[in-house]
Design brief:
- 2 copies of one chain form a homodimer.
- Helices cover about 35% and strands about 25% of the residues of chain A.
- The first copy, chain A, is of the alpha+beta class and about 325 residues long.
- In chain A, helix 2 packs parallel to helix 6.
- The longest helix of chain A is centred in the N-terminal third of the chain and has 18 residues.
- Chains A and B meet through helix 1, strand 2, strand 3, helix 2 and strand 4 of A and helix 1, strand 2, strand 3, helix 2 and strand 4 of B.
- Strand 3 of chain A pairs antiparallel with strand 2 of chain B, so a sheet runs across the interface.
């Protein structure tokens, strides 16, 4: 069956069938708007991200199931970076005429599989035709107690700077995909990033993180956002950046600077956060319990400015920091 | 200044400056997610709509200020159709390289002007580049008391069928725009539709409407959605359709059926609702107080099926009902 034969409302019905049903949903897909019950006493967190064909993904090497998972994952990562518990998603799609149900069905299956893993219910959205590329727009709502929500602005002088997992793998994976490779750990990290929901919620619940952001634009760029809003500076130690075995093995054969992907690559969807030095042991215990590395990569300074310390002890101030959608 | 020179974060900063600040916003634009305080006891309503260049609008004859207003209006209309009070919006934009700030600045100004008129605060979204057309994705959150929310599914046999305002003007306006005209009441209705927020809230607050939907796909199509979810049928009287002076004057010179735009045109963003016959006087009083016509155009029948009664008294069952994004 083609999308033409199925029709707009047939396709919406197919999505609604796989949307699942979670607590708090009064009205899901099928009315003018969805209706949900906010948990008393909690604040509502909400974030939106767009993924555009030819900008964020290339269907030539992006399997649709993973694309569906990633479309939600990038939003789950934003809610995690606030320490929030994700709850309800809306999915809007602009679909070019040539895109078949053989792509759309696994895309929806991927989206809903990621949703189920994080307790998220798909409650609405929009579908329409596109004269150009495939465009995906996702809105995700979450919740948290007011005093537990972690902002970008709370870092203080003397705090340690942490990052979860590995950085740079997503950019490495993209480079390998563009070279024609199709399998490997870094490629999986690029196509199907893992949102750090459990880590974000735990860091918030225990009041460990003073400031937090997810690494979407690149470690330096996102650190820059956090420092700007916190009114602080930082020293970042290159030799402490958590690099995966594949990064250590494959990056030297690529021709650019060894650290560039870890610093500016983006799309790792790890959590970059700050915490007082006295919480170091607690954070180590949390990292062990979640089986997720949380590595100290630097320290926050009261004075503004970001200084990068190289493995040889020399220091420099970085010029460009990361991805800007409108830069030339 | 160009968008390239301003950069992604400069542009976001410019949007944030004009976003306004409303009650209930803890964190607006600038963190990983926005945080808002739900009003205790109310349910949260949420809807999302996409507007795609070349599908929903043509920049050749769509002024960007009006496009900004319409991008929010189509979502305001969805919240109004639930009887909800609109509160918080998220705006995501995929921007092609050629789109200048001379278009984007009035677009944002239009969006925020419509937001202020309806008490809505812009709290987040996303901006990215597009390889093809301009794509606008808006999410709107609203609120209402659980027992006041009006669904599509509540119509009952014997209810009267109402529509607010005029139908068919938006489709007429689009036809006139495509013919090269640039001014007139129908053109204004197409470019800058008026969401019926006050009417929707009042109909909900006083428990008048048993079912409600907004007219976005066309009167017949949206009536079909309402009837399907209510498990009812209806008789619709063509000679009761509220047609504007411009419709009566201009449509005869166009070559298609006189009623086709009023029945299938779409994008009027009027409210189509049902109410028990005994509320007729109250609804007339509400219409007078809002200075907004609320016209009885038919009646709900217990038996499924939609029957159209022509001015000469003959009846027929309509075949096709309205716009399907994926129909051939």
């Amino acid at each position: 069956m083609t999308l033409n034969e199925l029709g707009e409302f047939g396709f919406i019905g197919r999505i609604a069938t796989s949307a699942g049903s979670g607590g708090g949903v009064v009205l899901g897909i099928g009315d003018d708007a969805a209706a949900v019950i906010p948990t008393p006493g909690l604040q509502t967190l909400v974030t939106a991200d767009m993924l555009v064909e030819g900008v964020h993904f290339d269907l030539a090497f992006t399997p649709p199931f993973e694309l569906g998972r990633k479309s939600l994952a990038v939003n789950l990562s934003d809610i995690a970076a606030m320490g929030g518990i994700p709850r309800f998603a809306l999915l809007s799609l602009a679909i070019p005429p040539g895109l078949s149900l053989e792509i759309l069905d696994p895309f929806i299956a991927g989206f809903t599989s990621r949703a189920k893993e994080h307790g998220v219910t798909l409650i609405g959205g929009d579908t329409c035709s596109s004269r150009s590329g495939f465009v995906i727009s996702v809105t995700l709502m979450g919740e948290q107690e007011p005093e537990r929500i972690v902002r970008r602005s709370g870092a203080g002088g003397g705090d340690l700077l942490y990052v979860t997992g590995f950085v740079g793998d997503s950019a490495l994976g993209l480079a390998l995909l563009r070279q024609g490779e199709r399998v490997g750990a870094a490629i999986t990290r690029h196509l199907d990033p893992i949102p750090r929901t459990a880590a974000g919620v735990a860091l918030a619940a225990k009041g460990m993180a003073t400031a937090m952001i997810d690494v979407s634009d690149g470690t330096l760029a996102d650190l820059g956002h956090l420092l700007k809003l916190s009114g602080c500076g930082a020293r970042l130690f290159l030799d402490r950046l958590p690099l995966s075995p594949e990064y250590l093995w494959r990056v030297p054969e690529l021709k650019d600077d060894f650290f560039s992907r870890a610093l500016s690559g983006g799309e790792d969807y790890e959590l970059l956060f700050t915490a007082p030095a006295e919480r170091e042991e607690e954070i180590a215990a949390l990292a062990a319990s979640l089986n997720l590395p949380m590595t100290v990569i630097g320290e926050i300074s009261r004075a503004p400015g970001l200084i990068i310390i190289s493995p040889d002890g020399s220091s420099h101030i970085p010029a460009s920091r990361g991805f800007d959608h409108f830069a030339r």
